[in-house]
Amino acid sequence: MKKNLFIAFEGIDGSGKSTQVKLLSEYLEEKGYKIYTTCEPTDSPIGKIIRDIFNHRLEGDQRVIAALFAADRLDHILNSKTGILKKLQEGYTVITDRYYFSSYAYHSVYVDMDWVIHTNSMSADLLRPDLNIYIDISPEISMERLKKGRSSMEMYETLENQKKVHTKYREAFDRIGEVEKVVVVDGNKSPDQISAQIIKNITFDL
Ligand code: ADP
User: Fold this and answer.
1) Among 1.20.1250.20, 3.30.450.20, 3.30.1840.10, 3.40.50.300, what is the CATH number of 6-205?
2) Whose CA is nearest to atom 4 of ligand 1?
3) Quick check: 126 pLDDT over 90?
4) How far apart, in whole angstroms, are the C-alpha atoms of residue 29 and residue 87?
5) Ligand 1 closest atom vs CA 11
């Protein structure tokens, strides 16, 4: 039986990922599991460049962004102090807010999805999630939620883009879903209902 898991949350912006990462980690911590939560883009120097591009402080072509995410992800996995492999080795169950399916969905709006999958293949070979949890929500509802909590919106946060990314997520799951463990949950429900649906799918002998 596996003692610790690697779980990746996926979904469009405002789908409720960070809310559910928090609820799941609290639930598992209460059960006595060691939990490490993380996210992409990371806090590394590469992640900082990505965020600066998102906030329009730096210029970056979509192809550059896609490549930066691939590099940030490798550091996320391999960093000798904070890397996911290190944390798994230390016995933590690692829960990440976004992993490579985010790249497949977001970047393929601009560049060929095969290229994105290929460019991230080293990450997939190094570390596949025990479980990808996709929070499926309508782009309209997610935009309403985002607008409520924000004074300004980031690069990808337009209804038009959210719709495209939503379609691309489906395409990515259809394309490579069978080599991945993917659970789809209904993100239009309440946070507690979604959390209960997620918890039903977490077993430590995946
Ligand atoms: P993400 O991390 O996917 O961008 P968040 O968890 O930050 O999404 O949620 C976006 C906004 O929607 C937040 O204001 C959050 O409080 C709210 N929210 C999250 N889940 C739900 C839900 N199930 N129903 C209604 N509002 C939600």
Assistant:
1) 3.40.50.300
2) 14
3) yes
4) 15
5) 3
